[in-house]
Amino acid sequence: MELRHLRYFVAVAEELNFRRAAERLHIGQPPLSIQIRALEEEVGAVLLERTKRKVSLTEPGQRFLLRAREILAAARDATDEARRAARGELGVLRVGFTSSLPYASTLPDLLHAYRGRYPEVELQLKEMFTVDQLTAIANGSLDVGLVRYVGGELPAGVLVREIGSDPLCLFLNADHPLAGRSSVGFTELAGEGFISFPVGVGTGLPDILRGLCRRAGFEPRIVQTAREATTQVALAGAGLGIALLPAPLSCIRLPRVRFVPVSDEGARFGLSVALPAGGGSPLVSAFVQVLDGLGGGAQAEANR
């Protein structure tokens, strides 16, 4: 039994006229009659009473009609869901992001735009360090990531594309001599102690800090480490050292904390999208399309 047999039967059952049903189905009347008889033989019951004057449903035919309509409706729904899934409109999308992103407009704007366009996709958001996101994309436990990639070897099968960057700022205690400055160069920081992320935690900021210090002629002196950027801001406010962090974190308002932009060329922290090298699923493709659609505004915000 095929779906077309059910469509033929439903058409005849609704028209109660073989000629009109054949016209509706765009087939000849004799082939339609043959198909209905074959269906009845397969079912093992007479579904339609035929006389020269009229066609009517039998009791088995009425019951079969209800089920046939349900099956055809389910087939249409299945087809529609498959097509929507192929367009990235249905399913579960696992998105990673770094801890500094919620403080900038890029992530909220992206999620708002994506949710408005694809409301039936279930978003699973995971805050992760960049290196952990790259590993998760490589092993298939994450679909797409928003990462702070600063170079280095990528896991096999992972593609990274830069979409913007944020300027870096120094976060320090309000009583620090540099706290009132409009900007600071690293040549002025040779004697300072820095608060940084632990080595190997999976963010590129320690490498950027080391590079800026070396270009200024000295090695950074790390006096405190913390895994969370917000913790570093608080420790800087307590006077334990200076933290180098992305400018969007300047929206964190804590007592005794001040932030000063870094004037050195290249004092920026790139923002990239990471995804499977083959482009990933339709869900990933749709997500990246929304991200690219925000490109102008997101880039402008990131470059401020």
How is this fold's topology laid out?
Blueprint: H1 3-15, H2 18-25, H3 29-43, E1 48-50, E2 55-57, H4 59-86, E3 91-97, H5 106-117, E4 121-127, H6 130-139, E5 144-147, E6 158-173, E7 193-196, H7 205-215, E8 221-225, H8 229-237, E9 242-246, E10 257-261, E11 268-276, H9 282-293, H10 295-302
Parallel strand pairs: 3-4, 3-5, 7-8, 7-9
Antiparallel strand pairs: 1-2, 5-11, 6-9, 6-10, 6-11
Helix pairs in contact: 1-2, 1-3, 1-4
Describe the structure.
The chain has three domains: 3-86, Arc Repressor Mutant, subunit A, CATH 1.10.10.10; 92-164 and 272-302, 3-Layer(aba) Sandwich (D-Maltodextrin-Binding Protein, domain 2); 165-268, D-Maltodextrin-Binding Protein, domain 2. The protein has ten helices and eleven strands. It has helices at 3-15, 18-25, 29-43, 59-86, 106-117, 130-139, 205-215, 229-237, 282-293, 295-302, and strands at residues 48-50, 55-57, 91-97, 121-127, 144-147, 158-173, 193-196, 221-225, 242-246, 257-261, 268-276. The strands form two sheets. Strands 3, 4, 5, 6, 7, 8, 9, 10 and 11 form a nine-stranded mixed β-sheet that branches. The longest helix is centred in the first third of the chain and has 28 residues, at 59-86. The radius of gyration is 32 Å and the shape is rod-shaped.
